[in-house]
Amino acid sequence: MNAETSVTTDEARQSKADEGKKPSLFRRLRPLLILVVLLGAALGGNWWFRVGRHMESTDNAYVQGDIVQLGARIEGDVAAILVADNQRVEEGQPLIQLEDRDWRARRDAAAAALAQAEAGITTGRAQIEQQRAQITSAEAQIAQADAERVRATADSTRYGSLAQSGFGSRENAERTLADRRKAEANVASAQASAAAAQAALPVLEGQLATAEGRRAEATAQLALAESNLAYTVIRAPFSGIVGNRSAQVGAHVRPGQNLIAVAPPPERQWVVANFKETQLHRMRPGQPVTLSLDVGGELHGHVESLAPATGALFSLLPPENATGNFTKIVQRVPVRIALNPGQDPALLRPGLSVEARVDMRADPSAPSSLLGAAAATIGLR
Prior knowledge:
Domain Multidrug resistance protein MdtA-like barrel-sandwich hybrid: 67-261
Protein name: HlyD family secretion protein
Keywords: Coiled coil, Membrane, Transmembrane, Transmembrane helix
Radius of gyration: 51 Å
Coiled coil: 128-155, 180-228
Pfam family, one: BSH_RND
Helix content: 40-55%
């Protein structure tokens, strides 16, 4: 028994001795592992030097768009809702119809007032033309009366001389003298009639001016009535997607009350990325941007502009750092990013979260992948 145990122990010792003489697997693979680590470090360092240090990214970015809240401009009842929720509409398309019977009646009343004013102007112009004809007639009567006065004066002078010399009768002299005085009176009467006719002309012209003023007022009232009638149809100001509808058929609405909203289509939206001030020293308009949407997908754009001030200064209560204790906080500047054309941003909606990465390399078209940067380094690209 003891002999067998001794043999087994010797064999175990011999096996351990043989294993100690063989090189371990880690020792055999260690040079290869070191080579892989060095190669990875070289590739990573090369990528960081050529690409990574020229990239700035932030997840403080959101999709933006000009959303318009449409409201009633007149008072009335909602007669019809002409679109469905989340429906795409075109510019000028009717969205909501208000009851228009009262506004049509007001439009018709304004049109009637304008027609009445036009008739007043026509009458005034006719009266002025008639008065001018009367003035012409009065001036002709003056000329006629003056001619009669000249003849009567000549007759009176002639017959008076004959009566004084004894060759004519006193009766003829007195008769011609009376005719002369009558002719002079007729001249004075004709002149007075002409003056009265001339004086009436400015009055008629003033009445015409008043009528023209009434026409202008009636025209303005008609234009206002036409505008109010047009306001009974609420139309889309631009092509987009409707939403946030609060209008209901039969509801009474007042001016300024929001009824429906129109959001811009995806192709008219943009991204506002709030970069830290420490990220802006090399950022310029025109640099390419890669946008990763939280809803999925990736889009490409470019830096369009940088805000003229930090976002904090545009807030309701801007910070005042000159008071009390001071704690420095890194500020953020809104950067507007425009989408490149030729894409299909169907998932874009204002308010969605985006991760933006700006490529600030001198040659943005150069390879940006790990292997691409390595190939460019050794001159293969």
